[in-house]
Amino acid sequence: MGTPTYDPIQTVTLGSPANSVTFSSIPATYTDLILVMDATADATADCSLTFNGDSSALYSRTVLDGNGSSATSARSSGGTNIPINYNGALVTTNPIVNTINIMSYANTSVNKTILVRNNSPSLGLALIAGLYRSTSAISSLTLVLSGGHNFATGSKFTLFGVKSA
Amino acid sequence: MSTKTLIQTISVGAGGAASIDFTSIPATFDDLVLELSARNTADTPDAHIAFNGVSTSMADKWLYGNGSAAGSLSNAGIYFEMVRSTYTANVFSSTSIYIPNYRSANYKSVSIETVTENNAAGALMLLDAGLWSNTSAINQITLVPDSGSFAQYSLASLYGIKNS
After folding, report:
1. Residues B151-163: pLDDT tens digits?
2. What is the pTM of this model?
3. ipTM of this predicted complex?
4. How far does the CA of residue B89 sit from the closest CA of chain A (Å)?
5. Chain B contacts of A7, Cβ < 8 Å?
6. Minimum CA–CA partner of B101 in chain A
7. Residue in B48, B33, B44, B41 with CA at minimum distance from that of residue B13
8. Coil, strand, or helix at residue A147?
9. Average pLDDT over residues B8-27
């Protein structure tokens, strides 16, 4: 019988508004990471992701997006972060649900790819493929809202570790 | 410590089932995941979700592709699709429904993925952002075909996830 795995590493539930959420000292003992966020904001705001405190131009993404009436696709490269929503921004009322899969995060032979499901029932949803062009193991990740806006109190972020063997 | 725990599996027997109903969901987890393999006895694909026996105060947005075009639409409900009775035999759709914070006193947002690939036209890939504008904890999840019934061998499994 295989070994069960889908381990919660850390959960952050905001007791007060915050512009950013950081998971640090991520153990290198898993194969993949999954970050689940259930959050609102103090105003309509976009959310972006960086790794290891790195804000150099090593990030890119491709997006498939729907806003409830039309579908679009877009891409960006050479960015200083990965935006993890397109039309589906955070709002003040209905929470967004984002799941972020980070594959082979501790593998120092590969650049890091992520797959994001962005769900904003108010504004739209997207499937985002992202790339962090660094072979460094990911030991921290940070989510930040645009425009100086804050994640609202009660917003919840959970980081899970998944082992492949 | 692994945290994804099987709560219940419902397997549809001969004669089909008008709905799949998970009741008395324990309040001991943080998130829920429902995995569904389904086929309809009718020649329609649509099905919807009810929480705690109600399907009001619900809405969703879809992003979909059908093999020739992509689109997006909105519904006044939380819907997904499954393989129709006329699709390739012995093929079932796959649906994954993620419900974070199902016990919270906030509105409930839901993330859904569905695929109805059947080696023929009419297949669909569907992403769904759903919302239940209700602050009650979820203790019941009901899946209901809009027409027809779940066919024999449809299978639904509900998992609980703990965040710590």
Report:
1. 999 999 999 999 8
2. 0.91
3. 0.85
4. 30
5. 1-3
6. A38
7. B41
8. helix
9. 97
